[in-house]
Each structure stands twice: as structure tokens, then as C-alpha cells.
Design a protein that fits this description.
The complex is a heterodimer of chains A (about 500) and B (about 950). Chain A has about 500 residues and is mainly α. Helix content of chain A is about 65%, strand content about 0%. Chain A starts with 7 loop residues before the first helix and ends in a 13-residue tail after the last helix. Chain B has a two-stranded antiparallel ribbon with strand order 1-2. Chain B is globular and about 110 Å long. Chain B starts with 9 loop residues before the first helix and ends in a 6-residue tail after the last helix. Classes of the chains: A mainly alpha (about 500), B mainly alpha (about 950). The interface between A and B is large, with 41 and 46 residues.
């Protein structure tokens, strides 16, 4: 990450305040590329989606006289389908395609592999370009969409049969439902990962997609299109090329001002992907002026909108002080308290994470945080949050104590945060313990400036902290042991030997 | 690097066997060369394989074990490949070791198996998983062997490999490793767990078989804990039912057969999965006996409940009144009982008892756990819990009242319960600081504590007496003063109790009461209030030291110190007796110093006696010297290292009381203090420097007159100190005293050498601390000898040196000087350089005049520069002396701050104005012109302020 340029006095000041720590490093970027031990949980938004019915575009039925609902499609065996699709007769081909689409749309175990192994993909792809056979085009697109919604291997088969250019040209089909089917298929391909995403971008998918956005575009179509755009923004290592991002952003901003919740949700997800990177990436998003709207959407009643809006703002406040400033100016500090008390733990956690990054800022921002009443909900989370939320809240405390003025630290302690983090010294996670010990150390440094070290040691002892820190001197983790030992040595060294409580 | 190859042949095995045997020889002349030889050949290829061959095949069991130990140590020293250092084990050997060691470990007898298992885990730490991919698969296949000797070997090794998952920070690398381990290990471990449980059922009556199976289960539980620690892995989430059902079964098994370590480990596991086990655990608690062997199990189980009940998420588990009542009745009350083991400790192992009961090292005890559970429950249920316990307390007290002799333990439990219930926050310094408002502490004191304290026979029911004393002690901040005053004479009486715990508690309680603060920050209890019992207090304290087992009782000695400090001049009449007793004690303990705290308080008490007595009458100092010097001499002669820093401090204190002369007795000691050996010990340096400073202050003249031959030795000490980054400031203290107090003519021949030494250090290793001290010294020199002398001595070392020092050190660094006295010295010194040094006006040094003035004004007006260059951050840490050698500073030997300038200069700013005025009248016109050309506007403004304040003008 780039370090903000600072003048020399600032440099020196920050050395004092943070004991040589670089404040930019206190900010924690979202770590996504993470090994997980737990069961993978369903994400709020999907990488790929299978098209089972066309319910998302009800109006389309009228537009597509050839559309036959799944239940009316004749059931054929794979063998019959192969025969039909391979025949020379358009009617049989259409029937075969329809039957294949039906099979691929069934809820359980659609026979993706069987269809691929039957060698039907090249036929389907070739049907895509038959502009004079819209029904066949449509059915083939549908079938391919569902194959592309499978595993990476399935998607790979579709791409390797040359579907990408064919789908991109289908985008401009005069038949809206066919164009939409192409949008969908491309979304699935983009969702596979950075490689295919960039293949699509190389093939100029973006201008083709964006040209379909107009005031008359039906809302269902726009939903699919926004979702596909979001997949084109998604994935790191590498990020999507900057030029592509620049191309998409104006339209995303436009979409974010609509009111449909699905569109808002996917557009927010798109922004959250784009802002999930170094400060340069964040800057591009901030520059669009979308921050106030994102902050507004953090209060949206739909969880599906609020979640990605919160994520986006969380990413932005992990950026530079100035970038954080835009979010603060937009009122993020007025929204966070509500989110920190949201019934869903994942929202609490995300909000605490955002707060921890704001707390890593300069003392002016810390002051705003305090003035807006963020300390009580922070303490509430330290006490009652689930463990992951508590972890973020602990970071918030430590970051705050690293950059805050002495008075701000005093306010933090008075708000009950010290008591709460001392209680958390019982947790098992060594890193969290270390972060708490760091906060305690910082608080001591503030007390030292006020000449209230003794008062603080007594307070910590009263709160049961001394016992806990003493026990941590037996911790197996070297760094935890060392940190606990240092605190005891420095601030609690043998009270019974000291006679200084006596006037000389 | 040439790698020699040792053939894997019989001859080499023979040689190795011989040398291994010699390493076991008690005679060092045989043992050491053999160890040396082995070290010299361990770099040879095949050496580790020879060891493995021996440990497997040697006929001699002793050699086998010795080879195993040697092998493990060899692995420990050499396996890790350190960057930029040669690989100390050849690759073929590494491969061969990894290929064979698991098999070898599993087929070896237990003694050797343990060593090899350790070796595997050392290798594993470096090579697993990347460079030893098949280790786990190889181990896992052994699960199917059905041989529990082998299975336990595998489990033990796995445990040593995996246990670090419990304390390491989460990282992608770590989690990838865990994932990999889970892939090969989780399923076989689960299968083994199920199989072992089944075997337990088949062998339910065979105690010996169960022993082995339970040791496997313990290891399995440990592994399960390690693998689940960082997060709940997918595999175990899917198999949770299997594991938890079986764990639950184990816990509810008839626990007479159950080994305690399995179950307490299970408790840790439950802390991962909490709620559903709460009932299982209290059932366990209810059914476990009072025997000592279950202590750890029970205290862990109670601690588990304690940590669960204060979490908001689990509050509901305890909410029900019946649940609360049954926890109180069946878990808390029984475990608060004073057991016969406690009684034994009270009588026979009082030190241990006190440490647990008073100092909080009772973490693993049942009582402490029960007490923590009470506090945990009080967090949410203070009202109901207090109500339930009030009933119990009353009935226990009633039991006691009926037949005290049989039922005194009920009262003990009642007091303990009240204490646990009432204390919400506590510190060493103040005792209980926040109490449960539902408990009436004063009423309990009057009705149940005071009667015990008043009972005429102090030796009856010593446990209850100790309880009562402890109650006063810990609730001292909560009880009204009149009750404390009522308790004081009673506590003094209990100093005479035979029970060590009882009189120790009495001393401790008194000591704590005497440190309490009243209004106006004075002591709560005054010397006047103590007047009626002063004599008895002092008497009883010293008498208590005569009890067997309390001869070096630190609590009593601390109480003596605290009493002196409280009573101040009221102790003067008793001093002749007291000092005799203290010196006698000192003589005794100096023979074999073993209680550092006792000794520390003893010296503090000596200091207090000196200070209090001499404050009223300084002439009495000689009587202290008479009493103490014989003992001090003995301590010095016998080189009692622990005591030397104390002796030097007391001597400093005594010497400082003398008015400007130094008695001959001190002078006789002077040469001894300069002995290099004394200065080798870090702990001696600060007090010795202080003592030498006192010598110089009181006897600078005398030294110059009658011990001039010792001056080189004195400067030798300075030279040694100045060379060390840790002690250079002490060297400067000494040097400054020399400059200040020695007659100038006695130093003439040494001055230049002193400056040269300082320059050498400046060129060698320049630290901020050194520069600061250097600046203070240079300016003190200027104040003492004049600015011209300063300039001349620099320039005599090397032409233009003075200018360089000003330009490179004084001007840029003076802002860093800290401390009011140090700052004043620098201000006055620089003022003299500016105004009393002709070279500053007439030579090329003139160009430095305004910058120096500017620096001085900055020094007056700007905040101190307390930055430290990055490369110095760690110097202090490296140079800080270790704990053992740490200097034990006596609080009551405290030294007053010394100001060599004193009242001669009240306000350095005024001095600057006046001096500038004087200079300007001497050479009219020059000063204003220098100011106007290059002093910056802001500085000029400040300067004008000084001139105005001094009502002078520049001409």
C-alpha cells in the first residue's frame, strides 16, 4: 500500500504518538484470499446462477411467442436429444435443444457432464449465431447458460467451444429475451474467475453491455445486466484492468440511483469489489462522488442492499485519511451505531471492522467518532458481540489508543472499554490477546502523560486485569508471554517491595 | 566444507559405543574429552545413522538409551537449516533419518520411544509438511495395528506436532497445514476414537486395560483439542455428534475409573462447545469426592461454570431459581469447606498457606474456583445469590454457635462465603475497593469478627483468628475508622499468637492499616492515635521475630518498617534498643541471605531509624556509625554480594548527614571502594557512585590533601563507567562531583586526559544519553572554571576544537537536555560562553555567537526534544542489567536533588540579559549589531522580553 506523504513534523509527531508504528499500517485491509477450515457458507450473492425459469422477466413471455415453459416441454432421453440436435431439421434441433434446456433446468443434478460428453456444445454454440432462428438461438443460449453455471470445468467447456464472441454478438439481438439470455450467460462466465473475466473484457463485452442500458430497459433485464457487471468487477489477483473499471463506473453510479433493490444490491456488490484494494483503487471509486449515496444505502431496509453498501464503505475507510474523510463527511458515523446494534452478527462485525479503521485515523477523526456517540455501541459489541465481532471491536480500541489524544483515551476508558477488553483477555485467540495487551500498554502511556499511572494500575487490578495479565505470562505463545511480561514489569513490578506510598 | 564419511561398520559402532559409555562417566576428566570427541565427529556423514543403529541394535540397554538421548540432542542442535550457514546434516542422512525414524520409534521400548518422538517433533517442526509429506500417512496406518503401545507412540508424536496449533497466530500458512493434517488425520482419528471407546466398554471391568485405553483417550482428546482450536473444521462439524456423544459418555462414566486428566482436558474442549455440557459438568461436580486427587478436576470444572455464567449468551442457563440454589448448595458450599488438607497446611506449611490465601497463588484450588464462581454468578444474579447464601451463612454460624469446638469449620466457611460474596473489586494496596451493597460488612464485623479478636486466648481456634484478622485486612477500606482503631490493639495482641499464620496475618494487617490514607493525604491512623500502644506494638513485633519459623518473616519486617515510618519521632526513645535488635538481625542474616524481601525491609528500617533520629539531632549519627560499622565491615570483608548495594546506600545516607567534613573511619574505607572487583557488578554501580559522590562532597579537600595518590584510581572508575553505554551517565555523575568539589589545582594534571577520554567515546559510540550528559558536564566545567578555561582546554587538544564542539554538539543538541538542574547548568554555562569568552567576540568563533544565542533562547522557550534516533531504540534493552543484578534501591535512603548552582542564579533568563548588558557596555555597539544581522525575529522578541524583565538595555 502507498504511504501517504507527510511533512516532516507530522512524521515526528506520529513517531511519538504511535511509538514508531506507521499509522497507515494500523488500517486493516479486507483479507479475502484466506484458507478456511470451516464449512464454506453460502455467500449473499452468487458467483454463477442457473436459469431455471424465466420468472425474473415475466414480461418477456409476451415478447417471445416461442417460449414454452419447462413443464410443457416434451421429455426426451439424452439419446433422443443427441439425435434431434444432430439432425438437419430445424424443428428437431429446436425440440432437442428445448429438451436439453429442460434437463439442464431441473432442480436436482442437472446432467451437465452428460450433455457436454455427448458433444452437443459445438452444436449449441453454432445455433447462437442463427439470427434467422430466434427460438433455436434462445434455447441454445439457455442451455449454455446453465452449463456455464456449473463448476469451473463446465464453464471452461463452454468458453472453449467459442461461446464468448457468439454471446457478445447476441447482446445486440433485437429480441430482448435473447439478449438477456446472453447477458446471463456472460455473467456466469465472468463469475468463474479473473481469467475468464479478463477474456470477456478483452472481447469488449463492456461497451456491448453498457449500450443496452437506457431509460426504457425493462427492470428485469437491468437486474441481470447489473449482476453481470458486478461479476466483471469481481475477483482480485489480478484486479480487473483499470480501463475496464473506468468504463463501468459511470453506469454503476447511474444504477445506484435507481430504486429496485436487486439492482441496488448487485451494483453495491460491484462497488464493494472495486473498492476492495489498495488506496489507488479506492480513490477511483471515491472520485465518482458515490460515497454519500453508499452511506445512504447503508440504512436501506433490505439486508441485500445494506450489506454490500456497508462493505463498500468499510473498504473505503480502510483507505487513506482523506478517503476516510469523505465517508465521515457523508455521515457514516451517524449510520454505524444503528448497524452495530443490528440483529445480524455479520452486520455487527462488518460495522465494527469499519469502525476499527476509522479509529486508526488521526485524532481529529477519532474526535468525530467520539462526538457521534460511537463509544457506547463499541463497548456494547466488546461485551455482547459474537467472537468475530469482538475481535474487530478490540482492534478498534487498540487503533484508537494508538492515535488518540490523552483526553480521548480517557473518554474511551470512561466509556467502559477498558473493563470490556480486560474481560476479553480470557479468549483463546492469541492474536486478540496480543492486540488487547497492546491497547493496555497504549492506555498506560496516556496515563503516564497525565501522571496517573498508579491510578490506572489500581483500576486494572480492580477490574481483575492484573490477575489475567499475570496468568498470560504462562502463555505458550512467545509474543503474548513477552507482552504480558513487559506490562507486569513496567507497570506492576513488585508492589510489596516498593515503599514509595510513604512520604519521605 | 569437507564432509567426512564415517563408514557404517562394526569398528565405528564399537568406537562410538566406547565414547558414549565414557560420556556417562562421573569423572569429568573422562567425560569431557568423550563429549568433545563426539562433538568433533558429529559433522561426519553417517554419524546419526550410526547412533540410530546403536539405539536399535546395541546389546547394552544403557548404550541404547544413551544413543537415543545423544541422537535427540544432535537433532535439536543441528536439524534446523539457518540461512547463510552451512547445512550441518548431509542430505542423504536427512533422507535416511526420515525414512526410518517413525518405524524405529514405534518399535522401541518406552524410554527410547520418548526420545525419538521428541526428535520427530523437532524434525517435523522444520520439515513437516512440505519436506516430509508421507509422515502422517505413515503414522496413520499404525492406528490399525491394534497395538496400543504403537498407537500411543503415534498419538504422542502427533500431539507434539500439533499442539502448537493452540497458541500460534492464525495465518494462511498455519491453516493450510492444519487443512492438510485434517485431510489425512481427522477420519482415522475419529475411527480410532470410536474403536477405543468400544474397547473401553468391552473391558469395562479390567482396570489395567482401562488404564492403557484411557491414556490413549487422553491423547486423542488432546489432539482433538489442538485440531479444533483455531476454528471448527468442516470435518469435525460433520462428525460432531460422534465426538460429543462419546465425550459426554466419558464424562458421565463412573468417575472412580476415570482418570482426572482426561476429564479436565474435556473441560477445555467443552469450553469450545459450551452450552449443552453445563449440566453434564455439574453432575460431575456433584458426584466427585473431596479427595485431594480430584482438586484439579473440580477446580477446572468450577472455573468452567464460572466463565460460562458471566457470559450474556448463557445467562439463561442459570436463571432458574432452582438451578441457582442447587449450584450454591451442591457446588459452591461443599467446595468452600476447610478440609483436613488445608488444616495441615495451616499448621505445618504456613508459608505455602499464606502464599495461597494471601497472595493469590491459589488459582488451582477448589476454594478459589468456588469464590470465582460466586463472583461470576453475582454479575447477573447478585440479589438472588446473596439471598440464598445469607441463609447458608446464618445456618452455618448457628451450627458453630451450638458447639464451637466441633463446628468451628462451619464458621470458617461462613466467613469465606461472606468474603467471596461481598468483594466485587480488590487491589493489593487498598483491599476490597467495591463491595456488594446487599452484605452488611460492619454488622458482620461487630457480631462475628470482633468477638473472635477479643477472645482472651489468642491461641484458641487459630484458623478462625486468622480469618478474623484477614477480614479486617481485606475490608479495611470498607470499615469505618473507629472500628479499625478498635481493631488495632487487638491485632497487636495477636502478634503474640503461636500460630505462624496468625501472627503473620496480624503483622500484615497492621502494615496495611498503617498505609491507609485519610483526608489531606496524611495517614488515616496517626502517630498520636497510636501513642497508647506504641511500646507494645514495637515490643510485640520484635518478639514475633523470635517465634520459630518467623525469624526472617518478611511480613513482620515490613510491619516494623511501616510502624517506624508512621510513628516517626515517637520511636526516638526506643531507638537504642531497636537499633541493637536490628543490627543483631542483620548480622545473623548476612551469614546466609535467603529472604530478599525480609532483608530489603530490614535495611529500610535501618534507614528510617537513622533519618528519624538524626533529623532531630544530627549529632547522633556517630552512634549509628558505631553500631553499624562493625557489621558493615564484616559484610564488606565477607563480600556478601546481596547486601553490598544496601550497605553503600546506608553509608551514603550517614555520610550525607555530616556537615562538611569526613570522619577518618570513612577515609580508611576509601581505597577499598575503588577496587575494580566491586565495579564489576552492575547492582553496585548506582549506590557506589552515590557513595563516592558523598565522599567528594564532604571530603573533596581531604582527598586532595591526604589521599591524592587515589585520584588516578577515582578517575579509573570514571573511565570504566564512561566506556559503557549502560553506565556512562553514572560516570558523568562522578565526574561532575569531582569537578564541583575537588580543589582545581589537584586536577590540573588530569584535565586534558579527561577530555580526551570523552572525545574517544564520542567518536566511538555516540548515543543521545551520552550527548546529554556530555553537554551538562561541559557547561558545569564552564560554570566552575570559567568560559576561557573551557575554550582553552578544547583548543589545547586540537586547534579550533572549541568551535567544532559548539557547532556540532552544543548548538544542535542542547534542546535534548532534560531535568531542571541540568537545564539550569546548561543555560548558565552557555551564557558564560556568550558573554565571558573573548574568543567568541574576536576570532573566527564569532560566527557562532548568534547561532549559540539563538540555541539558548530556543532552549528556554521551545519544548524539549525527546526524540530518539531509530537506531538507538534498542540500546537500552540490550544494556539493561538482568533481573538478578538489578539495583535494589532503598526508598528511605532517598537522596535529595543536588543543585551545584543553587541560589546563585535564580532565573537564568535574567542572568542572560544582565550578562549581555555587561558585554555590550564593554564593547559598545557590537552586541546590537550582531543581534540585528542574524538573530531571527521570534528569538529577538523573546530576548527583548528578558531585557525588559531585567530592566537593562543593550548599548
Amino acid at each position: 500500500a502507498n504511504m501517504p506523504t507527510k511533512n516532516v513534523t507530522d512524521e515526528r509527531l506520529s513517531k511519538f504518538k504511535n511509538k514508531g508504528k506507521d499509522p497507515a499500517k494500523l488500517r486493516e485491509k479486507r483479507i479475502t484470499e484466506c484458507v478456511e477450515l470451516r464449512k464454506a457458507h453460502k455467500n449473499e450473492n452468487f458467483l454463477k446462477r442457473r436459469n431455471i425459469t424465466l420468472s425474473s422477466i415475466p414480461d418477456e413471455e409476451a415478447l417471445s411467442p416461442d417460449y414454452i415453459p419447462n413443464e410443457l416441454v416434451t421429455h426426451l432421453s439424452i439419446e433422443d436429444i443427441i439425435k434431434d440436435v444432430n439432425s438437419d431439421c430445424r424443428k428437431s434441433q429446436t425440440r432437442g435443444c428445448q429438451a436439453a434446456r429442460k434437463l439442464l433446468s431441473q432442480e436436482r443434478n442437472p446432467p451437465l457432464k452428460e450433455i457436454i460428453d455427448a458433444g452437443l456444445l459445438s452444436n449449441f454454440v453454432s445455433f447462437l449465431s442463427m439470427d434467422d432462428e430466434p427460438t433455436l438461438q434462445f434455447e441454445a443460449a439457455w442451455a449454455l447458460t446453465n452449463i456455464a453455471s456449473g463448476t469451473s470445468w463446465h464453464t471452461q467447456q463452454v468458453v472453449e467451444h467459442g461461446a464468448v464472441p457468439a454471446f457478445i454478438s447476441l447482446l445486440s439481438s433485437p429480441m430482448l429475451h435473447i439478449s438477456e439470455q446472453a447477458v446471463w450467460a456472460l455473467g456466469n462466465i465472468a463469475g468463474d474467475g479473473a481469467t475468464y473475466r479478463d477474456v470477456l473484457i478483452e472481447c469488449n463485452v463492456i461497451p456491448a453491455l453498457l449500450s443496452r442500458i437506457s431509460p426504457d430497459t425493462p427492470v428485469g433485464y437491468l437486474r441481470n445486466l447489473t449482476w453481470t457487471l458486478s461479476n466483471l468487477c469481481r475477483n482480485k489477483n489480478p484486479f480487473p484492468p483499470l480501463s475496464a473499471v473506468q468504463q463501468m463506473l459511470p453506469s454503476l453510479v447511474q444504477l445506484l440511483h435507481l430504486s429496485d433493490k436487486d439492482i441496488l444490491s448487485d451494483a453495491c456488490w460491484a462497488i464493494s469489489y472495486l473498492s476492495d484494494g489498495d488506496n489507488d483503487r479506492i480513490e477511483i471509486v471515491v472520485k465518482t462522488g458515490i460515497v454519500p449515496r453508499l452511506v445512504e444505502l447503508m440504512s436501506h431496509q433490505e439486508l441485500g442492499v445494506m450489506t454490500p453498501a456497508l462493505r463498500s464503505i468499510g473498504n473505503i475507510v480502510s483507505g487513506s485519511d482523506l478517503q476516510t474523510e469523505t465517508a465521515i463527511d457523508a455521515g457514516v458515523l451517524n449510520v454505524l451505531p444503528k448497524l452495530m446494534r443490528h440483529p445480524k452478527a455479520s452486520i455487527q462485525k462488518e460495522a465494527a471492522w469499519a469502525l476499527s479503521n476509522i479509529a486508526a485515523g488521526p485524532c481529529k477523526q477519532i474526535q468525530q467518532l467520539i462526538t457521534c456517540g460511537l463509544l457506547p455501541p463499541l463497548v456494547h459489541l466488546l461485551r455482547n458481540g459474537d467472537f468475530k465481532t469482538q475481535r474487530e471491536a478490540v482492534w478498534a480500541v487498540t487503533n484508537l489508543t494508538s492515535g488518540a489524544t490523552v483526553e480521548q483515551v480517557v473518554q474511551l476508558v470512561q466509556s467502559g472499554a477498558l473493563e470490556a477488553i480486560i474481560n476479553l483477555l480470557q479468549v483463546k485467540d492469541a492474536k486478540v490477546i496480543l492486540v488487547i495487551l497492546d491497547a493496555i500498554n497504549n492506555i498506560f502511556m496516556a496515563a503516564e502523560k497525565l501522571g496517573e499511572m498508579e491510578k490506572l494500575s489500581l483500576l486494572i487490578e480492580e477490574l481483575g486485569g492484573l490477575d489475567r495479565i499475570e496468568m498470560l505470562q504462562n502463555h505458550d505463545n512467545e509474543m503474548v508471554y513477552q507482552a504480558a511480561h513487559n506490562i507486569i514489569e513496567k507497570y506492576f513490578s513488585d508492589v510489596s517491595l516498593s515503599c514509595v506510598d510513604e512520604q519521605l | 566444507l569437507v564432509v567426512l564419511i564415517m563408514e557404517l561398520n562394526d569398528a565405528n559402532l564399537q568406537t562410538l559405543t566406547q565414547f558414549l559409555r565414557k560420556t556417562l562417566d562421573p569423572d569429568p576428566t573422562v567425560r569431557r574429552p568423550a563429549e568433545k570427541f563426539l562433538e568433533s565427529v558429529e559433522g561426519n556423514q553417517n554419524y546419526p545413522l550410526l547412533l540410530l543403529t546403536l539405539l536399535e541394535k546395541s546389546q547394552d540397554n544403557v548404550i541404547r538409551v544413551c544413543a537415543a538421548v545423544t541422537f535427540k540432542n544432535y537433532i535439536k542442535r543441528n536439524w534446523r537449516i539457518v540461512e547463510d550457514e552451512p547445512n550441518k546434516i548431509s542430505d542423504p542422512d536427512r533422507t535416511a533419518i526420515k525414512a526410518n525414524i517413525v518405524n524405529l520409534m514405534l518399535s522401541s521400548p518406552e524410554q527410547i520411544q520418548k526420545q525419538l518422538s521428541d526428535a520427530i517433533s523437532i524434525i517435523g517442526r522444520e520439515d513437516f509438511p512440505q519436506k516430509w509429506p508421507d509422515l502422517l500417512t505413515e503414522m496413520v496406518t499404525r492406528f490399525r495395528s491394534g497395538d496400543f503401545h504403537i498407537i500411543n507412540g503415534v498419538l504422542r508424536t502427533a500431539h507434539s506436532l500439533f499442539k502448537r496449533y493452540r497458541h500460534e497466530f492464525k495465518s494462511n500458512e498455519l491453516w493450510s497445514e492444519i487443512k492438510l493434517v485434517l485431510d489425512t488425520f481427522a477420519l482415522p482419528l475419529t475411527e480410532l476414537f470410536k474403536a477405543t471407546i468400544e474397547l473401553c466398554q468391552t473391558h469395562a471391568t479390567d482396570v489395567n486395560a482401562l488404564k492403557v485405553l484411557f491414556s490413549s483417550l487422553t491423547l486423542i482428546a488432546k489432539l482433538f483439542y489442538s485440531l479444533n482450536f483455531q476454528d471448527l473444521p468442516e470435518f469435525f462439524e460433520d462428525h460432531m455428534e460422534t465426538w460429543m456423544t462419546n465425550f459426554h459418555g466419558l464424562l458421565t462414566l463412573d468417575n472412580k475409573l476415570l482418570q482426572t486428566d482426561v476429564s479436565y482436558l474435556l473441560l477445555y474442549i467443552y469450553s469450545l462447545y459450551t452450552a449443552r455440557f453445563v449440566t453434564a459438568i455439574w453432575n460431575l461436580l456433584v458426584s466427585t469426592g473431596q479427595e485431594v486427587k480430584y482438586d484439579l478436576l473440580v477446580s477446572n470444572a468450577i472455573q468452567f461454570l464460572a466463565s460460562v455464567c458471566e457470559r450474556p449468551h448463557y445467562k439463561h442457563l442459570f436463571e432458574d431459581q432452582n438451578t441457582l440454589t442447587s449450584i450454591c448448595e451442591k457446588v459452591i458450599v461443599p467446595n468452600m469447606e476447610f478440609r483436613s488438607a488445608d488444616e495441615e497446611a495451616f499448621e505445618d506449611n504456613s508459608e505455602e498457606y499464606i502464599r495461597r490465601d494471601l497472595e493469590g497463588s491459589d488459582i488451582d484450588t477448589r476454594r478459589r474456583a468456588a469464590c470465582d464462581l460466586v463472583r461470576g454468578l453475582c454479575k447477573f444474579f447478585e440479589g438472588p445469590v446473596t439471598a440464598i447464601f445469607s441463609g447458608y451463612v446464618n445456618s452455618m454460624l448457628a451450627e458453630y454457635a451450638k458447639t464451637p469446638r466441633e463446628n468451628w469449620k462451619h464458621k470458617d466457611a461462613a466467613i469465606y462465603l461472606v468474603t467471596s460474596l461481598a468483594s466485587k473489586a480488590q487491589t493489593q494496596k487498598h483491599g476490597i475497593t467495591q463491595a456488594n451493597e446487599l452484605v452488611n460488612l460492619t454488622e458482620f464485623f461487630v457480631n462475628h469478627i470482633l468477638p473472635d479478636l477479643k477472645s482472651p486466648n489468642v491461641n484458641e481456634f487459630p484458623v478462625l483468628k486468622a480469618d478474623a484478622i484477614k477480614y479486617v485486612m481485606i475490608f479495611r477500606s470498607q470499615l469505618p475508622k473507629e472500628q479499625l482503631l478498635q481493631a488495632v490493639p487487638l491485632l497487636i495482641t495477636h502478634l503474640q499468637a503461636e500460630s505462624t499464620v496468625e501472627h503473620t496475618y496480624a503483622a500484615h494487617a497492621l502494615e496495611r492499616l498503617f498505609t491507609m490514607r485519610g483526608p489531606n493525604n496524611t495517614t488515616l491512623i496517626t502517630a498520636a492515635e497510636m501513642a497508647p500502644c506504641t511500646e507494645q506494638l514495637l515490643n510485640n513485633l520484635f518478639k514475633a521475630l523470635a517465634f520459630p519459623g518467623s525469624a526472617e518473616n518478611e511480613y513482620i519486617m515490613k510491619a516494623i518498617m511501616r510502624s517506624f515510618s508512621l510513628l516517626q519521632e515517637s520511636i526516638v526513645p526506643y531507638i537504642p534498643t531497636l537499633i541493637g535488635q536490628l543490627t543483631h538481625k542483620l548480622l545473623q542474616v548476612s551469614k546466609n541471605p535467603s529472604k530478599p524481601h525480609f532483608n530489603h525491609y530490614l535495611f529500610e528500617s535501618l534507614c528510617l531509624s537513622v533519618r528519624i533520629t538524626c533529623k532531630a539531632n544530627p549529632a547522633t549519627v556517630s552512634s549509628f556509625e558505631e553500631a553499624l560499622f562493625p557489621v558493615f565491615t564484616e559484610i564488606l570483608q565477607n563480600d556478601v554480594q546481596e547486601f553490598l548495594p544496601y550497605v553503600f546506600q546506608v553509608m551514603s545516607l550517614l555520610l550525607e548527614i555530616h556537615s562538611n567534613s569526613i570522619p577518618a573511619s570513612y577515609m580508611a574505607l576509601f581505597p577499598h571502594l575503588l577496587q575494580p572487583v566491586l565495579w564489576e557488578r552492575t547492582g553496585n554501580i548506582p549506590p557506589l557512585v552515590r557513595l563516592l559522590q558523598a565522599y567528594l562532597e564532604k571530603g573533596g579537600e581531604t582527598i586532595a590533601r591526604s589521599a591524592a595518590d587515589k585520584i588516578p584510581g577515582l578517575l579509573g572508575v570514571f573511565q570504566k563507567l564512561i566506556a559503557s553505554k549502560a553506565n556512562d551517565h553514572q560516570g558523568f555523575y562522578l565526574l561532575n562531583s569531582i569537578i564541583e568539589h575537588m580543589p582545581p589545582e589537584s586536577l590540573i594534571q588530569y584535565r586534558k586526559q579527561i577530555f580526551i577520554l570523552l572525545f574517544q567515546r564520542l567518536q566511538g559510540s555516540k548515543t543521545t544519553k551520552f550527548i546529554k550528559s556530555f553537554l551538562v558536564f561541559v557547561n558545569l566545567y564552564c560554570v566552575k572554571y570559567g568560559a576561557i578555561a573551557l575554550q582553552e582546554i578544547f583548543d589545547s587538544i586540537q586547534p579550533k576544537m572549541f568551535g567544532m564542539v559548539l557547532e556540532k554538539i552544543v548548538i544542535p543538541e542542547v534542546q535534548k537536555v532534560s531535568g531542571p538542574v541540568e537545564k539550569k547548568i546548561c543555560a548558565v554555562g552557555i551564557t558564560k560562553i556568550l558573554t565571558e569568552c573573548p574568543a567568541m567576540m574576536d576570532t573566527e568563533y564569532t560566527k557562532l555567537w548568534t547561532p549559540l544565542l539563538q540555541a539558548l533562547i530556543g532552549f528556554f522557550e521551545l519544548p524539549e526534544d525527546d526524540s530518539i534516533p531509530d537506531d538507538e531504540h534498542f540500546i537500552d534493552i540490550e544494556d539493561t542489567p538482568g533481573y538478578q543484578t538489578a539495583f535494589s534501591q532503598l526508598a528511605f535512603a532517598g537522596k535529595k536533588e543536588h543543585d551545584p548552582i543553587g541560589d546563585a542564579v535564580g532565573n537564568p533568563k535574567i542572568l542572560l540579559a544582565q550578562s549581555l548588558h555587561k558585554l555590550s557596555t564593554a564593547c559598545p555597539g557590537r552586541v546590537p549589531s550582531m543581534l540585528s544581522t542574524s538573530l531571527n525575529a521570534e528569538a529577538l522578541q523573546f530576548l527583548q522580553g528578558y531585557l525588559q524583565a531585567a530592566t537593562v538595555q543593550l548599548v
